[in-house]
């Protein structure tokens, strides 16, 4: 792998640095009056079943007992950031069903501020149905937005929500909320100097220009990146020998000077156009139990790091540990670790 990378100009291969886990300013953020990390988006109840394998189309297979766990991409990201010590404020909507208190309660237990979460009458909270392969930890997910679709313009424009978002240090967005609301949040943050990290997931191959202009950093996986930039994936699946320098310039032309491209168990790439550099972050390898929410753990970590002005490459380095740790536990939020737990697990 290293030989293939050496032929590419200015690509730096980085083993995740232990010093990122020793960043002592993270726990102190809880003392700040305004949220350091604002996250607007989804909260879902995850109905999860583990089976010996994933079913084929039209096939019924037997699984174990169903578990109901707190999830949702944005809720997961909030918990991940909060467990690292960041002061996190969640913005979104739950319904008036039993899952509403379940979801907000789980966030609060992890240290997330849920003051601004909207409760929508006569509406179910968001939910997902997840099947997990007991052998590989891979999963399939079906998403029902429910109350997440009620994170509308009126909610975003309420004075208290606007004030809290625009006083944050960094804003995290994904696309499980209405696109017009996501775009408005990005624009509000951008106008007030709040750094915006956009996770293009669930993936859209076309993004509003206003959203692109307002977001600072894009987070996508390798397949999403290829579709978004209309770049062919390597036939062999060898992303190590992929032309990442071309991708760096294509990403800039698309509208992002900074981006992280995750490669699953192979790590991630950090693209920095201003520095004309591409950094390869090596993955931490663990025995995966369940990969549900690992990508959200990664993004939550990046948000926490950006809130204390860590470099993007160092944020991605720390995120490689946090995401790997999450794969060793069952569920999404339930599998996330604190700095102390992650240090102990990796013997750092």
From TrEMBL:
Its EC number is 2.7.1.15. One of its GO terms (molecular function) is metal ion binding. GO terms for cellular component: cytosol. The keyword Nucleotide-binding applies. Residues 35-335 form the Carbohydrate kinase PfkB domain. One of its GO terms (biological process) is D-ribose catabolic process. It is found in: Cytoplasm. It is an enzyme of class 2 (transferase). Homodimer. This is Ribokinase. It comes from Gardnerella swidsinskii. The gene is rbsK.
């Amino acid at each position: 792998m290293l030989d293939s990378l050496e032929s590419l100009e200015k690509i730096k291969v980085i083993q995740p640095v232990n010093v990122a886990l020793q960043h002592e300013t993270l726990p102190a953020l809880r003392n700040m009056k305004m949220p350091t990390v604002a996250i607007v988006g989804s909260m879902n109840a995850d109905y999860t079943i583990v089976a010996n394998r994933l079913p084929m189309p039209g096939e019924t297979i037997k699984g174990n007992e169903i578990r109901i766990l707190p999830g949702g991409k944005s809720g997961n990201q909030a918990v991940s950031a909060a467990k690292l010590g960041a002061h996190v404020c969640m913005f979104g909507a739950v319904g008036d069903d039993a899952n509403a208190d379940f979801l907000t309660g789980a966030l609060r237990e992890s240290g997330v501020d849920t003051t601004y979460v909207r409760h929508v009458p006569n509406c179910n909270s968001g939910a997902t149905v997840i099947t997990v392969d007991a052998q590989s930890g891979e999963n399939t997910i079906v998403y029902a937005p429910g109350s997440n679709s009620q994170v509308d313009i009126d909610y975003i424009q309420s004075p208290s929500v606007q004030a809290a978002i625009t006083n944050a240090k960094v804003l995290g967005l994904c696309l499980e909320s209405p696109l017009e609301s996501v775009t408005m949040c990005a624009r509000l943050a951008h106008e007030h100097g709040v750094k915006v990290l956009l996770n293009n997931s669930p993936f859209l191959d076309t993004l509003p220009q206003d959203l692109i202009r307002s977001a600072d950093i894009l987070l996508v996986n390798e397949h999403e990146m290829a579709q978004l930039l209309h770049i062919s994936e390597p036939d062999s699946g060898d992303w190590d020998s992929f032309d990442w320098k071309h991708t760096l310039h294509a990403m800039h032309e698309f509208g992002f000077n900074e981006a992280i491209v995750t490669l699953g168990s192979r790590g991630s790439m950090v693209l920095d156009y201003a520095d004309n550099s591409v950094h390869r972050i090596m993955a931490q390898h663990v025995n995966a139990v369940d990969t549900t929410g690992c990508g959200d753990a990664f993004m939550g970590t990046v948000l926490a790091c950006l809130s204390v002005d860590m470099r993007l490459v160092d944020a991605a380095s720390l995120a490689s540990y946090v995401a790997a740790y999450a794969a060793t536990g069952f569920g999404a939020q339930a599998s996330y670790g604190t700095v102390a737990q992650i240090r102990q697990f990796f013997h750092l």
